[in-house]
Write a structure and sequence with these properties.
Elements: H1 13-16, H2 19-25, E1 36-42, E2 48-50, E3 58-60, H3 62-75, E4 79-85, H4 104-115, E5 120-125, H5 147-163, E6 168-171, H6 177-185, E7 194-198, E8 204-206
Parallel strand pairs: 1-3, 1-4, 4-5, 5-6, 6-7
Antiparallel strand pairs: 2-3, 7-8
Helix pairs in contact: 5-6
Length: 220
């Protein structure tokens, strides 16, 4: 915040009176380039499903998602974030469908990048949409989350998403970013995939400990 001289020497309303002075002194500017547009994608054709807990928000099948992506491009919104809803029959205890290269998310990513190559696509690295128990981690028989097994599956999911052509993988499982970054780099380097840390309420921040980007030394 700007510190003004005390009244009467400081009269900040003078700076707010005209558009030109507001433009000169304002500290923050919000444009469409600052936005990420979240969408909920589901299987099928012509599917538009209302989400009761979020009035006005819908789950869309890919064919109905494409016009939304086109609108994002027209409005100058740089990134679309995907959140999948898969058929219950595909859910398993270990969430293995998250690693299927022909699953819902990779198919949507490939089509979006084909139709709108300039639109950034972000995917959520999380197991809860794919597990029968609805947990983001993999529990043992006592319900205790097994960190190593969960991390291994999340790395496979992140790699699957990266190979589908996504621009940014966004782990909602916050504390395993380094493992996912390393997993993306080692088998098939993807130096330009921004690794973001997703925190509650959909706010995204760079991961300071991995530099915000998955890069190997000497790569761009």
């Amino acid at each position: 915040m700007t510190n003004f001289a005390p009244f009467p020497a400081g009269r900040p309303r003078r700076l707010r009176r005209d558009a030109f002075t507001r433009n000169l002194v304002r500290e923050n500017v919000l444009t469409p380039h600052d936005l990420i547009y979240p969408v909920f994608v589901t299987e099928g054709q012509g599917q538009r499903v209302q989400i009761a807990s979020m009035p006005g928000v819908e789950r869309l099948s890919l064919d109905l998602l494409l016009p939304v992506a086109e609108e994002c491009v027209k409005l100058g919104i740089p990134v679309m974030a995907l959140f999948p809803v898969i058929d219950g029959s595909l859910k398993t205890f270990d969430g293995a469908e998250a690693t299927n290269p022909d699953g819902l998310v990779p198919r949507v990513v490939r089509e979006l990048k084909k139709q709108f190559p300039g639109l950034g696509v972000m995917t959520d690295v999380a197991l809860d949409p794919f597990t029968t128990h609805g947990q983001d981690g993999l529990p043992d028989e006592n319900g205790y989350i097994m960190n190593d097994e969960t991390t291994a599956m999340l790395v496979r999911q992140a790699l699957c998403q990266a190979e589908s052509g996504v621009d940014i993988v966004a782990p909602s499982d916050m504390d395993r970013c380094n493992s996912q970054c390393t997993g993306i780099q080692r088998p098939h380097p993807h130096p330009h995939h921004g690794l973001q840390r997703q925190i509650r309420l959909g706010v995204l921040r760079p991961v300071s400990r991995c530099g915000g980007l998955c890069r190997q030394p000497g790569q761009g």
